Amino acid sequence: QVQxxxxxxxxxxxxxxxxxxxxxxxxxxxxxxxxxxxxxPGKEREFVAAISRSGGSTxxxxxxxxxxxxxxxxxxxxxxxxxxxxxxxDTAVYYCATDIRPAASSLAAGMAAxxxxxxxxxxxxSS
Length: 127
Known about the structure:
This protein has strands at 3-7, 10-13, 18-25, 34-39, 46-51, 58-60, 68-73, 78-83, 92-99, 114-117, 121-126. By secondary structure, the chain is mainly β.
């Protein structure tokens, strides 16, 4: 059984920063790509960023490129999302997830590629 626990959410003013963390247990963390998704009220869950097993490759949705940075520490079984220059439209519940494909070479943006999900952490950006 895999458990993912997100933390670091909160209320921040536009232009501010937050750092989300996702601690994983129950699976060999370094064997799987990881992703961050978000879901705003009344909207579908959307891809935010993904990172490869080693951390050497990353992928971002266009709306966060240059502002958000995904990273991981395999020794701590943790993946991070550093969010800078935040905007009100970044307001959402943020989820981390593990990629279901242990031998995948590419990073996925589709939810179907991810199996285990955390409970989510609320991020609110005020204008």
